[in-house]
């Protein structure tokens, strides 16, 4: 009797695990399908090229006069890379602290309290972020957990562990990166 009960409970647990696994697979497939369609539309609307390879979407081309490369996958999240002229080969890393959206409506406070900025040159960062418009453009990124922007060589990259689904959101990130790249290019120490 105890053996039958143990077997029944074991089979029931296996059945529940299989159902949960199937539900996750279906959710990922639905999410992936919607996101792929969105990125295809993004590419088409902005005269970019869309490719899919090994479960990863890739959008490349020229955007606002800059070479862009967007990579996205459900497992790895999103990477947006654009080129810039980094005249002095400055290094920059901006990390979001993931502050709650409601914590501050003031963009200056959001920028100051929600983003951690590292660079090898304080002169570079002081000059770069002396632009109030740029600080206000970057401030909303403080609410996105684990978002990182890096400048290394001629590459400016934004990375986040989540997939950015909506084409409007991707374009907004591209615009912010382009603004940042423009400000970087304006600095010649």
Write the layout of secondary structure elements.
Layout: H1 2-45, E1 49-53, E2 56-63, E3 66-73, E4 77-83, E5 92-96, H2 107-114, E6 115-119, H3 122-128, H4 132-138, E7 148-152, E8 155-160, H5 167-186
Antiparallel strand pairs: 1-2, 2-3, 3-4, 4-8, 5-6, 5-7, 7-8
Helix pairs in contact: 1-5
Q: Brief description of this entry?
A:
By secondary structure, this protein is of the alpha+beta class.
Low-confidence stretches: none
Query: What class do helices, strands and sheet pairing give?
Result: alpha+beta
Number of helices: 5
User: According to CATH, what is the class?
Assistant: Alpha Beta
Strand order of the largest sheet: 1-2-3-4-8-7-5-6
Strand content: 25-35%
Roughly what is the average pLDDT, rounded to an integer? 86
Could you list some keywords that capture this structure?
Yope Regulator, Chain: A, 5 helices, alpha+beta, 189 residues, eight-stranded antiparallel sheet
């Amino acid at each position: 009797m105890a053996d039958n009960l143990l077997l029944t409970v074991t089979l029931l647990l296996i059945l529940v695990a299989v159902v949960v696994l199937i539900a996750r697979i279906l959710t990922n497939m639905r999410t992936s399908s919607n996101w792929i369609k969105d990125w295809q539309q993004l590419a088409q609307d902005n005269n970019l090229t869309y490719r899919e390879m090994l479960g990863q979407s890739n959008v490349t081309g020229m955007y606002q006069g800059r070479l862009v490369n967007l990579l996205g996958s459900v497992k790895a999240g999103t990477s947006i890379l654009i080129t810039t002229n980094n005249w002095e080969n400055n290094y920059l890393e901006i990390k979001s602290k993931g502050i709650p959206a409601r914590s501050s409506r003031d963009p200056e406070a959001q920028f100051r309290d929600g983003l951690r900025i590292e660079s090898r040159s304080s002169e570079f960062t002081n000059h770069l972020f002396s632009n109030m418009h740029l600080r206000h453009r970057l401030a909303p990124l403080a609410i996105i957990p684990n978002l990182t922007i890096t400048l290394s060589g001629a590459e400016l990259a934004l990375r986040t562990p989540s997939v950015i689904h909506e084409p409007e959101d991707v374009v907004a990130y591209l615009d912010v990166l382009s603004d940042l790249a423009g400000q970087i290019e304006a600095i010649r120490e």
